[in-house]
C-alpha cells in the first residue's frame, strides 16, 4: 500500500483532497523521510523538521503554480521539495548531480529562485507581486522567512518598501526562537481567527460606512480603533509591523495544521501586505534535534537512534578557533561573527571570553562596520565569516575598513570548493573581488604550520588583512620541491597539497618540476617575484575562479616587468558550481591530481 507521500509524488494535486487527519499523517511521513535521508547525506535538519506543517498547509491552500512560495535563505525547503515531485530523488539530496539542499530553479519551476543567502525573499516577493497584480491574474505570492532573517538589513529594506507599496503579499514569519505559553497561544489563535474572518471584516467595513455618516462618527471610530489596537497588543507583538503599514496576525502555533489552515484561509485573499507570525519547534519530531537544535541545524551523517555523528572530522576552522582561544589569554582582542559561532569553530572562545565575543546575527555588513568602530577606538578584532557571505560585504571592506586603513582581520572560512551546498555557497570568488581593493593583504595558507604563522602575524598587523582557508583540515606541513628544474608549479592555499602530488608524479615521468606552496595572494610574495625569471614555464594552481585570480596576478606581474616565461593558470573557469562533494567537484573540474597532471604535462611538453 502506498504512503500518502508516495501518492502526492505521483500527483502533487492529490494533496488538496486530503482530510486534516491525513495531512497530519503526511507530516509524520515527511519527518521520517527527512530524518532518514539527512542521517545518511548530512544537511539542515532542525529547521526543516520545524517547518513541515507550514509548508504542507501552504501547498494545501495555494495553487502552485501559478501561486508562488519564496523561501528566505532556502535551507528549510526539504518539505517543499518532497511535495513538488522530488520524493523519488530525495535520497540524492546534496549529492553529486543530485537535488540541491536549497531552492534551485533548474530543478523545478516551483523553486522560484536559486537561493542560499538570507534577507532576499521579501524584496523578491514585492517584485513578483508587482507584476502579478498588474496582470490581474489573481496569482498569489507567499514569502516564508525565519526569525533569523529579521536580523538582516535587507529584510528591513524590503519591509519598509512593502508597507508603502501596499502589494498583496503574505509573509509567514517562522519563529522558532520565541517562547509562547499555551494560554497565550490559544488566546492569540482565537483572536487572530476572529479578526481575520471575512464575514467579520466585511461587516466591519459596512459598519464603518454607517458610523461615518452619524454626527461625531469619526470620533467614535477613533475610540473603537484605539480599543481594538490596545486589546490586540496585549497578546501580539505586532506593533512594529503595523507601524510599517503591514497587517500583523498571530502569533499562532506553526506546528498545528488546524490553526494554520483556519487562519491562512482567512487572510490569503485580504488586500494589502500581511505578516502571519507562527511559532514552531526547531527539530520537531526528532528528540535529539529538539534537545539540541543548534547542533542539528547543519549536521553531517549521524546515527538515527542515538543522534551521535558517525564521524567527527576536525576542520581548519576548529584549528583557527583553538588559536583564538589560546591567544585570547595573553592578547586583548574581540571576535565577531554573523550567526556562525559553531560553524566557524568559535564556540570555545565565546565560552571562555563572553565579554569579548559578539554574534550579531545574519548581519554580515554590520559585522564589518562594527569591527571598524572597534579598531578605530584602539582595539584589535577578528571577524569570522564564510567566503560565500563575504560577497555581501564588498562595500564595507572597501569603504569602512580599507579606505580608513584600519587593521581589521577577516577570517574567511569555507574558501574554495564547499561540499554539499551547491552554487550559492562556493568560496571561489573572494580572491578576484578582494584583489581589486587597495590597502588590503590577502593570505591563503597551505598548511596548519603556515596558518599558525599567519595568525601570529595577524595579531600584530597594521593593515587590513584577510586570511582565507577551507573547511577541510589543511595538512600539518607542506614543503617545496627544488631541483633546479626548467618548470615551476606554484600551488596556492588549499590546492597546494594536490598540486604537489601531481608534481611528484610528473617528476617520476621525467618532466622535472620545481614546486612552491604559496600563501600570499596580495601582495605577491617577494620570493616569487625574485625567482620567476629563472624558469621557462610557470604553472599556477588555485581553488578559485581564474578571472582576476591569483594566476592572473602572476601573469600581470610578468607582463609589467617584461619577464618572458610562459604561464599556465590552472583553476576554475568563469562559472557556477553545482552540488557535490569537494572531491567529486575537483575531479569534474580537472583540479584533482590526475586533472592537474594532464594539464601540466600538456603544457610542459608543448614546445
Salient structural properties:
Rossmann fold; alpha/beta; 4 domains; 16 strands; single chain; five-stranded parallel β-sheet; seven-stranded mixed β-sheet; 607 residues; globular
Architecture overview:
With 607 residues, the protein is of the alpha/beta class. The chain has 4 domains: 1-115 and 286-307, 3-Layer(aba) Sandwich (Rossmann fold); 117-281, Rossmann fold (3-Layer(aba) Sandwich); 316-468, Rossmann fold (3-Layer(aba) Sandwich), CATH 3.40.50.970; 487-605, Rossmann fold (3-Layer(aba) Sandwich), CATH 3.40.50. The protein contains 25 helices and 16 strands. The strands form 3 sheets. It has a 7-stranded mixed beta sheet, sandwiched between helices. Helix 21 links the parallel strand 12 and strand 13 (513-518). Helix 2 packs across helix 4, helix 6 (121-135) runs parallel beside helix 7 (153-165) and helix 16 packs parallel to helix 18. The radius of gyration is 28 Å and the shape is globular. The model is unreliable at 178-185, 199-204 and 230-236 (pLDDT under 50). Belongs to the transketolase family. DXPS subfamily. Catalyzes the acyloin condensation reaction between C atoms 2 and 3 of pyruvate and glyceraldehyde 3-phosphate to yield 1-deoxy-D-xylulose-5-phosphate (DXP). Its EC number is 2.2.1.7.
